[in-house]
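Field reference: sequence -> structure
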Amino acid sequence: MQIKKYKKPAIFALLTIMLMVIFVFAIKYFKKATQASKISIGDITPDYSAFNNLKLSNIINGVTLPIKVGIRNFSPEQFSLSQIKIDIYSKENSLIAEQTNPMTSPTAITPNGQTFVNLNYKITSLNFIQLLKENGIIPDSFQVADLLTSWEKIQNLVSSMKLNLKGFFEAEGLKINIDQVV
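Structure field:
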């Protein structure tokens, strides 16, 4: 009969411990979620050299545009970036270039710093010309054929081009939406 007497306090103690553990994990998750809001896109470095040797096949099929994308972390927490999907859109929100390389391994996002991720984008010549026009680098009358003959004249101007990036990345199980012009 004595054993039954101790069952209720033992169950109560076990439930209390379980609730405390759940509470501690909830606080840690809430803290991470709060700090995750301090992550954003930072500096980007597009490599437009793919347009240096344009051929007819590139104009038709498009080129791969590598871009180093900086992920800024303004929090004191380190995050592990496990997934990233960011595409380039026009000012009118139509898709210009889609990211072609998924992440193959997690990347650490340093606290109070910027970490760079190498992304590749498939962009057609028509979409690239649309970006150039939106950024005021070329006139509206510019055509695809003009890209072949005028690239040397405009390639120094593309570094000032703004890109509308939309998508998300996932860090520590938290999905962070991106909608930035950089």
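Note: Residues 1-36 form one domain.
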